[in-house]
Amino acid sequence: MLNVKIFLWKVSMSIYRIQKYIMKMQQKLMKKFQKKKKKIDLIHRRLLLKGKELTSEHRTLLLKIADRCPVHNTLESDHVRIKTSLNDDDNDDHENMVTLLATFQARSSELSPGFQVQRVLPYRKQRSVGSFIFLDHFGPLDFDPTNGPFLNVGPHPHIGLCTLTYLYKGKLLHRDSTGAQALIEPGGVNFMIAGKGVVHSERGKPGDLAQATDTLPNQCHGIQLWLALPASSQFIDPTFYSTRSIPMAKFPQCTLIIGTFNEYTQSDIPLLPQMGSLFLIDIDLTTKNITLPLQKIPQQPLIEIGIFVVSGSVRISFINNNKEHHQTTMNQGVTAVFNYSFHADDATNGFISFQSLEENTRIAFFGGTPLPEPRIMRWNFVAVDKADIDSAAQAWTNLDRSRFPPVVNEANDDSIPLP
User: Fold this and answer.
1) pLDDT tier, 13 (very low <50, low <70, confident <90, very high otherwise)
2) Residue 312 and residue 168 in contact, taking contact as beta carbons nearer than 8 Å
3) What's the rounded Cα separation, in Å, for the pair 166 and 343?
C-alpha cells in the first residue's frame, strides 16, 4: 500500500510539472486564437500511463489529480471545455485507441411524487456522449395497480432535442401537442423530435392507461434519453414516432433501440443525416456473455461510447489485435464513457467484451460521433445559443400557446412550471 502511495505521489508531481508547461502552451494558444478572433470549443488533454497494473481506482484518482490543474480555472468558460482523459497502454501505431473519459455513479432524483429515478447524464465532467445529452433510469418499481406510486409527468415543454423512452417492464401513455398519443410497452420505443417546440405528458396512472389498454401494470422499469438536434435543425417542426426495438440476429441477447450498429439499422425511426453515427443497444446478459465487434465507420475516425449498468454487474474490456485494453468492472448505477478512435490505415475492427458477474445483468450501450459544438441546457430546453433558451423559458412562463400549444386530449391543468 505504501509503494502505491509513493507511486501516486511521484505521478502527481510529474503531472504538476506537465500542467505548468501545458498552461503556458494553452495561454499562448488562447492569445493566438484571440488575435484571429476564433473560438476554441474543446481542449482535450491525454495522459499516457504505461503501468498496466493500475486499477480503475488508481486511474480515477489520477484523473482527480489532473483536474486540479489551474488551467481549468483560468480557461474554462462557456466557449472552452477542458477534458482530461487517460490512455493506459503504450499503443502500437496500428491499434485502435481506447481512452477513458469518465466513470461516475448515477444520482437519485424524484421525477413525480414517490417515484425516484437515477440521473445518469448530464454529469458535471461529462455533459454528453455522442449526441446523447441526458439519461434517466427509472425503476424497477413494484406497486399496487390502483394506488401506485406511479410515474406521472404532467405537460412540459422541450426545444432543440429528441426524447427517447424505452421500457423493460410496465406501460406508459404518451400524449403531446402535435396530437400524437401512444402506449409504450416493454420493448417499445417512443421517439419525439421537439424541434422548435413541443409539449408532452407521460402518464402511468390507471385512469390514463385505461384509455389505451385493458390490463393495468404493477411494475415500471425503463430509461429515457435525450439527443441534441444538429445546430442546423434545432428549429424544425416537431414529430413523433412509436415503434418496436429490433433484435440483432447474430447477437440474440442484444436489441437495437435506435440508430445503426454494424449491419443493423433501426429504420422505423428516421434520423437526420447531420446527426452522424449513433446507436443505443439493450444488452441482456441473463443467459451468456457477449463480445461485439466495433466496426469502422466511414469518415468517422472517432466515436464516444457510453456504458450504463442497468442491473447486476459486468466486466468490460476492449480487444484489439488480440490484446485486452481498459478492463473495467462496473456495478449497478455506474457509467463509463470512452473515446474510441479508429486507426486511419487499419482495416481491422476492434471488439468490446461484456462479461456478466451476477444474474440478471443488463446494460445500456450507447454512443456515436461527438457533437461538433457545445450545447446549453436549462431544464428541458437545449440550444446552441443562450438567447434561444431564454426565449423558450419566457414563452413557457407566459404560457404562450403560439410557441407551446397545449397537449391534445388533456385538461393541461397540471402543467409543470419553469423551475
Assistant:
1) low
2) no
3) 34
